[in-house]
Amino acid sequence: MKILLTGATGFLGSHIAETLSTHGHELLLAKRTKSDLWRCASLENKVKWTNSDSDAFELDVLSFRPNVIINSAWNGVSAGERNSWKHQLDNLCYQQRLLDLAKRLEVKVFIGIGSQAEYGTFDGCVDENYIADPNTAYGVVKLAAQQIVKTFCEENNITWYWFRLFSCFGEREAENWLIPAVIKNMMQYTDICSVCNDHICPGKCRDLCRGQLGRHAAGSDIASGRTLCHSKNV
Question: Among 45, 177, 178, 190, which lies 20 to 30 A Cα-Cα from 230?
Fold first, then answer.
């Protein structure tokens, strides 16, 4: 498969890229002009690259002609930006650029990455039947993005998936997320609640990418949303 992956230099995106490359897919990875490629060092010379903030982005994608688009890019994921409406709403414009390209290229599959934030504050276990009730700008815009993907793709006969991810951990994770923050702050005897972005029991990022995300990139007859999280009630 020829796959366009956005957000490839991020924590999740780098693991998706690594998994797809291992399975022999031809990749066009989208990044910002100033993005640091350290998470993708092993892939840097094995894939094609494009800058999503350059004038040549659309031309690069049209030339590559992907069969699948995976959008793992999102601006404003840190705790300090999750209630910034400007940061969050900018993501809808970027997503629409990708959807328009998907329609123009007759892409077979479009995959978007959602978040546990779409559920808002909750107790107990959550699955796909749990009612979404976001209480942050981040969660509200993620939920809106999912509805746009669903409606647009169904109107244009594109198989779509929306994965609502709960916390992940693993190699190349930023220091302010749960597992690295716990380790760092236990060593420094610092209150973890004052610095950590997340408090949900995480799953292993690499396992996630090798499982659901990697499998659905190949497409199926059923388009839908999926909630991917730890199986335990914590």
Answer: 190
